[in-house]
Amino acid sequence: MSTRRILIVEDEQPIREVVAFGLKRAGFSVSEAGNGVQAQASVANERPDLILMDWMLPDISGLELTRRLKRDELTREIPVIMLTARAEELDKVTGLESGADDYLTKPFSPRELKARIDAVLRRSSPLDETQSLQVKGLQLDTAGHRVLAEGVEIHLGPTEYNMLSFFMTHPNRVYSRSQLLDRVWGANVYVEERTVDVHIRRLRKALGSHGLDGYIQTVRSAGYRFCPPGE
Ligand code: CA
Fold it and tell me: What is the CATH classification number for the domain harbouring 222?
């Protein structure tokens, strides 16, 4: 089972620590940020599966930060749960259309938080643990972290697995090497663009053992496209 990474953006350290403690106990991997700048760096470097965002931060409001994340193509799919201090704030926040996926008023119980997180992850993530991704001849079982080609398990390295998972959730679109680096490796990871070619080659080779290497097309001077037949 893959561990979900939650980023807690909260300037009040005691609250942050209590929340982090509860989430770790619930089996999540946790990162913490005490302000908006740290939050943005953490989002770029670690690409969390979900963000808990305090509304009132010292440098930028959680509301504005959420808007920015939701405007950016690289981060808009990361679900955000906004934390507010009072119910009146909640009314305001919900009326402001920040793009947050859910809202929670402090104080909340660890159980309530866990329930909200689970619900948001289930709703928003294409890689929910109960799901598997499937296209013709190819199945990616996200719960078991396994890939089946024509019903037979194939073994992929972690980068090839992440790449295939990205392709299967974003089919029929051309991605440049630099876009693939951002989406598969994460922004701010300094890897040469030709590294992408190396991993594409490995992925094709693995798929090729079942005649599926044609699913990944090279688009000249543009990049790569995942194009399963019949789509
Ligand atoms: Ca605060």
Answer: 1.10.10.10
User: For residue 143, how far is its CA from the centre of ligand 1 (angstroms)?
Assistant: 35
**β-bridge mates for residue 31, sequence order:** 7
- pLDDT, residue 139, reads 92
Å from CA of 82 to ligand 1 middle: 11
Hey, what long-range contacts does 145-149 have (CB within 8 A, 24 or more apart)? 145/2, 149/206, 149/207, 149/209, 149/210, 149/212
Q: What percent of the chain has pLDDT over 90?
A: 48
In a domain, residue 221? The reply is yes
CA gap 119, 144 in Å, rounded: 21
Burial (Cβ within 10 Å: 0-12, 13-18, ≥19) of residue 178: exposed
User: From the CA of 49, how far away is ligand 1's center (Å)?
Assistant: 22
Q: What is the pTM assigned to this prediction?
A: 0.57
Residues 101 and 157 in one domain: no
Say whether both 211 and 137 belong to one domain.
yes
Cβ(197)–Cβ(173) below 8 Å: no
